[in-house]
Amino acid sequence: MKAQTLLAIAITALGLAACGSGGGGSPIDNGRNSPNPNSPINPNDPNPGGGNPPPPPANQRTGKAITLSSNGYQRISEQALSFTQQNFGVLKVDGQELNIIPPNMSAGGLLNMQARNTARVGQVMTQSSYGYVREGTNAQGYMFSQGIVTSANDMPTSGTFNYSGYAVHAAMSNQANTQVEAGTANFNVNFGNRTISGRLSPANNAEVVLDNGIINGNSFSGTANSGTKFSGYFYGGHADEMGGTYYKQGEYTGAFGTQKIVP
């Protein structure tokens, strides 16, 4: 890899504005309209990502982080997240507080900012946040989803809804300069049948199909036909947002965040 730092800043058409010494970027265009930005998980589960995680109490601020190696995005471990403040712009993990959005910037859409020793790829929404964060030379990275889960009383019990947003995807690689990719995420949720399925389209990677998902209270999980395990939660009032993490052993790890599309 060349010695100089590589920096790529990509945002949705909703925009990224630098509040400090200046900044720039270009919108992500995947041929689809950008979703409205107003719109996690039991690390001790013997089948992480699969099975049904227990529903958390109402208004619990919770989530999950998957730790990845500094080189090659090897999946190392998983851990539960919890926080008391409604500050989804900070990831508290392993005794660290990592900013999802840099302090001198504000983002209304998906931020994709990667350099040699740091990476911030993700989005802060109204009730949740998701993405990938790494900071420092040889530092481990974290793929995560976190937020305020929907209370049991506010969960829909009927109807089918589409959820649209973005996914952050890290393919395992032996190449030192491989970067995390972003792409669209689209899900179909049937609250009556308690099923969920989705398709993720990370740039420069094959589409990831997440099928066979089961809703359990305000959480969901499943193991797709491809072997990909995924899990997550519904966030905010009336399941307005939905996000989670996924991985396929030996191939890739990712996170996604979406918003309910109301007709």
UniProtKB/TrEMBL annotation:
UniProt keyword Signal present: yes
Region (Disordered): 26-63
Domain Transferrin-binding protein B C-lobe/N-lobe beta-barrel: 155-260
InterPro entries named in the record: OMP/PagP_B-barrel (IPR011250), Slam_hemophilin_C (IPR054843), TbpB_B_D (IPR001677)
Signal sequence residues: 1-17
Protein name (Swiss-Prot/TrEMBL): Transferrin-binding protein B C-lobe/N-lobe beta-barrel domain-containing protein
Assigned keywords, A-Z: Signal
GO cellular component, one term: cell outer membrane
Organism: Eikenella corrodens
Keyword Signal attributed: yes
One Pfam family this sequence matches: TbpB_B_D
Localization, UniProt: Cell outer membrane
Biased composition (Pro residues): 37-58
Superkingdom of origin organism: Bacteria
